[in-house]
Amino acid sequence: MRRPLIAGNWKMNTTMEEAKKLVNDIVNELSGPDEVEEVLCPPFISLTLVKELLKGTMIKLGAQNMYFEDRGAYTGEISATMLSGLCDYVILGHSERRQHFFETDVVINKKVKKAFEFDLKPIVCVGESLADNEAGRTKQIITTQVTAALAGIGPTNELVIAYEPIWAIGTGKAATGGRANTTISLIRCTIADLWNKGIAEDVRILYGGSVTGNNIGEFISESDIDGALVGGASLKASEFVSIVRQAANLKAAR
């Protein structure tokens, strides 16, 4: 059975002091249930601090992005060489990167390849816009994004896919568990077609988009949903801890 994963994406939030308090509050409340893997993804400036604060815990560290070159004249970018040994995970292809920074499927694929090269586990985000959803293009968009992200990459279960419908991110309009599970099942079938069914059954696929302590149970109860990529709710220690604990309890009850 796939081990659930709950990842907190803090986005462009928290100062160093705020990050320190948030991590300490989470660690004080969360002993790290074996049933669930937890990942915190703070801003770049706090990565070293958070790594120190997480020592002795089971909570993993993730970055929110990276570039696909090792080094060079790329002002403001962070490379996989800088993250290697510091982070366990890296979020790639988030809809906000696609929308605001015009990242293409080709760019995201280069980033995924580079992450694997430096033993970073990518959390690859895919998702459709409201217009595409309402026009019935969800299957086309999701299949294209998954196929492009994994192009030229051999079968591996050392990655995570996060389905984040753009229309649900930060809007409070979370998809229903059943609706999200249908799309995540499509993602798993796409991976099976690209690689093989065995690997597809091993790869963890998360739901993301207005996930809270009030609705996590609806998602984690679904057969193909293996956890959540949590945005705003991960900035509140009590909320993040509640999400993790509910995921652990539901996993134990299966």
Task: Describe the fold and architecture.
The chain has helices at residues 16-29, 47-53, 80-83, 95-100, 105-117, 130-134, 138-149, 177-194, 197-202, 216-220, 237-253; strands spanning 5-9, 37-41, 60-63, 89-92, 121-126, 160-163, 204-208, 227-230. It has 254 residues and is an alpha/beta fold. It has one domain (5-253): Aldolase class I (TIM Barrel, Alpha-Beta Barrel). Strands 1-2-3-4-5-6-7-8 form an 8-stranded parallel beta barrel, surrounded by 5 helices. Helix 1 packs parallel to helix 11 (237-253). The radius of gyration is 17 Å and the shape is globular. The N and C termini lie close together (10 Å). The model has no long low-confidence stretch (mean pLDDT 95).
Summarize the structure.
With 254 residues, this protein is an alpha/beta fold. It contains eleven helices and eight strands.
In the predicted model, the low-confidence regions spanning at least 5 consecutive residues are: none
Instruction: Assess the beta-strand content as a share of residues.
Output: 5-15%
Helix-strand pattern:
EHEHEHEHHEHHEHHEHEH
CATH architecture: Alpha-Beta Barrel
Q: Assembly type of the shown chains?
A: single chain
Please count the helical segments: 11
Percent range of helical residues:
40-55%
How many strands in all? Answer: 8
The name CATH uses for the topology is TIM Barrel
Give the biggest sheet.
Answer: 8 strands, parallel, barrel
State the CATH superfamily name: Aldolase class I
> Which CATH first-tier class would you pick?
Alpha Beta
Q: What is the general shape?
A: globular
How many domains? 1
Give the spatial strand order of the biggest sheet. 1-2-3-4-5-6-7-8
Structural class: alpha/beta
Average residue-wise pLDDT: 95
Query: Roughly how many Å is the radius of gyration?
Result: 17 Å
